[in-house]
Amino acid sequence: MTVWDHLKSDAVKSETREIDDEETREIDDVETRETDDVETREIDDVETREKETDDVETREIDDVESKETDDVETREIDDVETREIDDVETREIDDVETREIDDVETREIDDVEARETDETDDVETRETDDVETRETDGVETRETDDVETREIDDVEAREIDDVETREIDDVETREIDDVETREIDDVETRETDGVETREVDDVEAREIDDVETKETDDVESREIDDVESREIDDVETRDTDDVETREIDDVETRNR
User: Fold this and answer.
1) Pick from 158, 168, 157, 160: nearest CA to 224
2) Minimal CA–CA distance to 136: which of 106, 107, 102, 108?
3) C-alpha to C-alpha distance for 45 and 51, rounded to whole angstroms
4) How many angstroms separate the CA atoms of 66 and 172, rounded?
5) Rounded distance between C-alpha atoms, residue 201 and residue 191, angstroms
6) Are 195 and 88 a contacting pair, CB within 8 Å?
7) Concatenated DSSP letters for 203-246?
8) Strand-pair category, 196-232 with 56-114
9) pLDDT tens per residue, range 126-168
10) CA distance 186 to 189
């Protein structure tokens, strides 16, 4: 087998596996919580130990601990309540009173008096025809159309502006200045003629300077601005933008 055949055999056995896993998950939950806790702790330990012929040990410890906490809590509540009542009551009164009285009085009197005197026969005929016709046409029409328009426009605005600013400025400075100086001067002189002079000069100076400054500046400013014009405007906007795009592009090319 030649080199060319060997290369062709390797080219046929080439395996191309391409997997394009692209998963895009985008969640837009925005929660902003800002806490400004600044704690500075600075310790400056300087230890100088110097040993010479006259043993001088200087130990100087400069412990400066600065703890500064700046807790600023701003709580601002803006409760605006708008209550608007639009009571429109329409009462319509239309008083139409039609009283129609048709008094027709017909009085008809028919007095017919016939007096006939017969000499032989005294016949007196008196005929009276009293006809009285009284016709009353009492037509009373009472129509009541009550239209009453009552319009009540109740706008109640209650605005509560609670601004509570609590600012705590705790500055604690603890400064300890421990300076301890221990100086030992051991001088020993020994001569030939049996004179031994031993001089020990123990000087121990211990100076402790403890300065502790604790300064607490608690400023609590609580400002409540209760303005009741009572306007309640409850607008709750909750915007959660959860966009989860999961795109998996599995391309597997296997060529043998």
Assistant:
1) 160
2) 102
3) 19
4) 6
5) 20
6) no
7) EEEEEEEEEEEEEEEEEEEEEEEEEEEEEE--------EEEEEE
8) antiparallel
9) 555 555 555 555 555 555 555 555 555 555 555 565 556 566 6
10) 10
What token pair was written down for 77?
């509540």
DSSP lists the bridge partners of residue 144 as: 95
Yes or no: say if 167 and 71 are a contact pair by the CB < 8 Å rule.
Answer: yes
Summarised one tens digit per residue, pLDDT across range 4-48 is 666 555 555 445 554 555 544 444 444 444 444 444 444 444 444
CB-CB neighbours of 97 under 10 Å = 9
- On whether the CB atoms of residues 26 and 247 are closer than 8 A, the answer is no
- 219, 169 contact by CB (below 8 A): yes
Instruction: Kindly state the tokens that stand for 90.
Output: 């329409």
The token pair at 245 is 């795009």
Q: Which residues of 55-93 are buried (b: 16+ CB within 10 A; e: fewer)?
A: ebeeeeeeeeeeeeeeeeeeeeeeebbbeeeeeeeeeee
Element (H, E) at 8: helix 3-12
Amino acid at site 8: K
- Separation CA 8–CA 14 (nearest Å): 10
Write the CB contacts of 147 (distance below 8 Å, at least 6 apart in sequence): 90, 91, 92, 93, 94
- Amino acid (one-letter) located at 103: D
pTM score: 0.19
Residue 177 CB: number of other CB atoms within 10 A?
Answer: 14
